[in-house]
Amino acid sequence: MIKAIVGGRWTTAIGLLLWAGAASAGGIPPEGAVRPPGLPPMAASLPAPYRAPYLPASDGERLQEVPSAADPKVPEMRSLRAKLDTEPRNLDAAVRLANSYIDYSRQIGDAHYAGYAEAVIDPWTRLAAPPPSALLAQAAILDYRHQFDAARELLQATLRRDARNAQAWLSLATLDMVQGRYEAARKDCAQVLSTTGSDLGSACLGNLFSYTGRARQSLVLLRQGEAAGGGTSVGYQAWIEGLIAEAAERLGDWPLAEAHYHSALRLLPHDNFLLVAYADFLLDRGRPAEVLPLLADHFQSDTAFLRLALAQAALHSPDASRYAWMMAARFEALKQRGSDYFGREEARFALQLQHDPETSLALAQRNWQFQRAPWDARVVLEAALAAQQPGAAAAVVTFVEETRLEDPAVQSLARQVPMPPSSGAAGESR
User: Fold this and answer.
1) How many angstroms separate the CA atoms of 223 and 194, rounded?
2) Given pLDDT bands bounded at 50, 70 and 90, which one contains residue 47?
3) At what angle are helices 91-108 and 272-284 packed, to 10 degrees?
4) Most buried by CB count within 10 Å: which residue of 45, 150, 325, 419?
5) What does the alpha-carbon distance between residue 247 and residue 241 come to, in Å, rounded to a whole number?
6) Is the pLDDT of residue 10 over 90?
7) Residue 63: pLDDT band by 50, 70, 90 thresholds?
8) What is the distance between the alpha carbons of residues 82 and 410, in angstroms, rounded to a whole number?
9) pLDDT per residue over 135-178, tens digit each?
10) 110-148: b (≥16 Cβ within 10 Å) or e
11) Is the pLDDT of residue 413 over 50?
């Protein structure tokens, strides 16, 4: 089955390794521990209770989420693992297990499973002529990590071997949309259309239209995909519902967007991307109290935890500083692991929780070199205006104008940036 939920638009989190190995449900580095270089000062300046070892109140207290055996994905992964162990040269078994790990990693926002997938598929990618299915799996892992250039190379290598590989074209289309390469994405979607038929190709184009000033056309195409979704997988149906919600947000139709977020989450109630996207919707609508129960069971995901921290701050909760401390520790842990993939999230953290617009702007501009989705434009604009450096967002404003992006939040911010009479073209990202 072609996986429609692919690429950078399904931004997920790297795991929850906290500084000094503290427990994710509240563990804090011990008193007297040395703050690692680069850890935001907030993390070291909080009063002693935040730095003391965490002691559970009872033996029944939950410290960290681990996959439940009741989750159907868990026995499925175990079964696939057992099959590969008995048939280590079975390419199909290896690819199925790797894809299962990748899907689960995206679903719960835990990068460990992407690492498991890479270990499974590595022997096949090291061959002199790697099979296309192995290249696709490795490309998905790299895309998950936001290593977009490397992912693109593998997708292009796949297509040189198999020019009618619809999954590769769809993955490439999604990657091109994330990076603002909309003309390339249009050609990719045309290839999806020619290799798979109207439904998936129309959904690909519908997704593209929501970025290029044609959100109403996007809704028409996506609703066609929704109507045809009865015989498709739950994952495909949730993907379509999520895309409709995004297109509705582009048009400022909040009731329609919320209805389709609800529809998507009924289909995939634990999907990290959908939960985070809906949490952002709620935060934008001034409804932070609803974010807390929405994400209460998903704190293992860094992207979800950031939204919890933002909600706590918006509510002026007594726990807000504790959440901010833990989020700072998570970002530092990611850097120590060499996982510097979430510039957009870190820019939002620096601006909204650390109140450091200059750092936020630097992070947002760096992120803009790799990702040019609407939220990436938004964080640059917000940081530039907060830092009183509106000229730093001129290239983003040009990009928004050239692509005719429809997004109420982005357009409102862009109107606050004074532009010179003739500004340079934003161009395409690499």
Assistant:
1) 20
2) very low
3) 20
4) 325
5) 10
6) no
7) low
8) 49
9) 999 999 999 888 999 999 999 999 999 999 999 999 999 999 99
10) bbbbbebbbebbeebbeeeebbbbbbbbbbbbbbbbbeb
11) yes
- Nearest partner of 240 among 205, 284, 283, 276, judged by Cα: 205
Burial of 319 (0-12, 13-18, 19+ CB in 10 A): middle
Residue that the structure tokens 């617009």 belong to: 357
| Under 8 Å between Cβ of 410 and 381 | yes
The two structure tokens encoding residue 155 = 């997708």
Rounded Cα gap, residues 87 and 116, in angstroms: 17
Q: Answer whether 104's CB lies under 8 Å from 73's CB.
A: yes
Extract the tokens encoding 82.
Answer: 């057992």
Helix (DSSP H) and strand (DSSP E) numbers for the chain: 21, 0
Q: Which structure tokens are listed for 395?
A: 């290239």
pTM above 0.85, yes or no: no
46 conformational bin, left if phi > 0, alpha if psi -120 to 50, beta if neither: beta
Which DSSP symbol is given to 49? G
Token digits for 15?
Answer: 């795991």
Confidence band for 21, pLDDT divided at 50, 70 and 90: very low
Spell out where 46-100 has E strands: none
Q: What is the helix (H) or strand (E) element at residue 106, kind and residue range?
A: helix 91-108
**What is the rounded CA–CA span in Å between residue 60 and residue 263?**
34
Chain-centroid distance of CA 317 in Å reads 26
Question: How many CA within 13 A on the CB side of residue 125?
Answer: 22
In angstroms, what CA-CA distances link 160 with 135, 302, 314? 12, 36, 50
- Beta carbons of 290 and 283 less than 8 angstroms apart: no
SS3 321: helix
DSSP state of 111: T
Task: Quote the percentage of the chain above a pLDDT of 70.
Answer: 82
Q: To which H or E segment does residue 274 belong?
A: helix 272-284
The alpha carbon torsion through 107, 108, 110, 112 (nearest 10 deg) reads -70
Given a contact cutoff of 8 angstroms between Cβ atoms, the answer to whether 382 and 349 are in contact is: no
* SS3 annotation, 173-194: HHHHHHCCCHHHHHHHHHHHHH
The region that residue 423 occupies, defined by phi over 0 for left and psi between -120 and 50 for alpha, beta otherwise, is beta
Give the rounded distance of the alpha carbon of 253 from its chain centre: 23
